[in-house]
Amino acid sequence: MKEHRSLKTEKRFSRHTKEAVIGYLFAAPAILGFLLLTLYPMLASLYYSFNDIITAQGATTYQWVGLQNYKNILTDPIVGVDFRKSLSVTLFYAVVNVVLVILFCLACALLLNRKFRGRNLLRGLYFLPSVIPMVATGIVWKMLLQNQAQGGLVNWFLLKLMKVHPVDFINSPEIFTTLFLMSLWTCGGTTVVLIAALQDVPKDQLESIEIDGGNAWHKFVKVTFPTIKPILFFQMIMCMMTSIQIYTQSVVFSRNGSPDHLTYFINVMIYDHAFVQNNMRGQAAAEAWMVFLVILAITLVLFSAEGVFHKDDSAGTARARKRARKEAGRK
Q1: Shortest CA distance to 107 belongs to which of 121, 92, 126?
Q2: Pfam family of this protein, just one (predicted)?
Q3: Among candidates 223, 211, 231, which has minimal Cα distance to 316?
Q4: Rounded (10°) CA dihedral 300, 305, 311, 314
Q5: Where are the domains of the chain?
């Protein structure tokens, strides 16, 4: 009897061991990729940020400078001013872009969630721009919006057909309008996530509001929005992170952030210090870690307000109880 139990236990442990080994094998590529492509570069950049890295005559030397690179960000009249200006421009773009993207994608999701002929086709067409590489998207938008002398189609249309004076969409403050429009054009993924979230909205509660005489706005405020709040919070976090990391669009439109460094975003500045200007890789690493701390602080602030975005079913429960009492009174 004991031998039978022992054999049974060994088989069970053997099965569990095999399952664990298979699981680790499947996870190994992701773990290895994280260690080599994420963790190691982060630790290396942290070490670089405390060094002055000098390359001369093909040789690279590392000179330990402690917190000097971080002090330069706060006090240096050149590096510090550039960092603060780039960070302020980046945060301005990120905040405005998050608001526009969330509102626009929510409106599109509500429209595309309705039942009408050709809905699936329209969903596919709307999602298509988000799968195009951002470099290709930026080049197409630049070709469309550049001035008439360079063959810009939009300015040609404004001048020839509408008799409107051409607008400099790229080399003027209007470039922010261009960046925001391009962001809205490529945010199909966020809309798809919100459409999926709308499938979780309880239909019985919507019908209850309709029976009580509520309109579409009442349905959205009392049922739809409380249900999708967690998804909106997640999308807001992701959109904020990707907006702060903007790089490709700025480089495609204007390599140096012109005009007047309006689009000299923080990632563009870090790249310039690391790979364009001489002997500033240590400074660039320190700037990257400062940006990491800024993103971490913003994320913590948003998570502190996470309770506002918790799913709330209390309204629907209260309505259900109210209707149940009415029906009981009629009986």
Answers
A1: 126
A2: BPD_transp_1
A3: 223
A4: 150
A5: 1-36, 76-132+186-330
- Residue listed under structure tokens 């088989």: 11
The Cα 178–Cα 145 span in angstroms is 8
Q: Which residue has the tokens 């960092």?
A: 83
Q: Is the separation of the CB atoms in 264 and 256 below 8 Å? A: yes
Strand-pair partners of 51: 64
Phi, psi of 253 (to 5 degrees): -75, -45
Rounded Cα distance between 326 and 263, Å, is 61
Four-way CATH pick for 76-132+186-330: 1.10.3720.10, 1.20.1260.10, 3.40.50.720, 2.60.120.260: 1.10.3720.10
Selection from 11, 46, 32 nearest residue 285 by Cα: 46
The total of other beta-carbon atoms located within 10 Å of residue 77's CB is 8
DSSP 261: T
Helices (H), the chain: 2-34, 40-48, 68-75, 79-112, 119-127, 134-145, 153-160, 175-185, 188-198, 203-211, 216-219, 225-244, 248-253, 266-271, 281-304, 314-330
Please, are residues 138 and 182 in contact by the beta-carbon 8 Å criterion?
A: yes
Spell out the long-range contacts of 109-118 with Cβ–Cβ below 8 A and sequence spacing 24 or more.
109/191, 109/194, 109/195, 109/197, 109/198, 110/198, 110/220, 110/224, 112/191, 112/195, 113/195, 113/198
